[in-house]
Write a structure and sequence with these properties.
single chain; 140 residues; mainly alpha
């Protein structure tokens, strides 16, 4: 267990360092991506999607895994909107918030507070108004 946790921690450090060096933790870089002023980050996302698509096909072909179609979970739209607004305001998704803190950026603390507050707010709103299954998309 300690060996696995150490390996996961090392992978996380390498990923965080890489994201920092690429510029994903910079609000200015994220803003340039969303305004299409600089396509470098956008193309990096596209490349990641293409690589994952190929990897999933290879995994399915070698293991016999099958992908089942699922309906969109009702919380996907609201969650995606909250994620997008938070990302646009802070320039950070949850992982990048941690990278920003690691870089010593004050904005990283604001991002982390927003992430925690957003999750708490969702739980309150969900319990009061929505009450759909929060287990996952498979249950939708």
């Amino acid at each position: 267990m300690v060996k696995e946790n150490t390996l996961v921690g090392l992978v996380g450090l390498v990923l965080g360092f890489s994201l920092s060096r690429i510029g994903f933790s910079s609000w200015d870089e994220v803003h340039r991506m969303f305004t299409f002023a600089d396509l470098r980050m956008f193309l990096t996302f596209c490349a990641a999607v293409a690589i994952l698509l190929v990897a999933w096909r290879v995994i399915a072909g070698t293991t016999g895994a099958q992908w089942s179609e699922r309906r969109i979970h009702p919380g996907t739209i609201a969650g995606g909107a909250m994620f997008g607004v938070g990302w646009a305001l802070t320039g950070a998704c949850p992982a990048i918030g941690l990278v920003q803190i690691g870089e010593g950026q004050l904005g990283g603390i604001v991002s982390l507070i927003g992430i925690v507050a957003g999750n708490w707010l969702y739980s309150v709103v969900h319990e009061r108004y929505f009450r759909w299954s929060a287990a996952g998309c498979a249950d939708a």
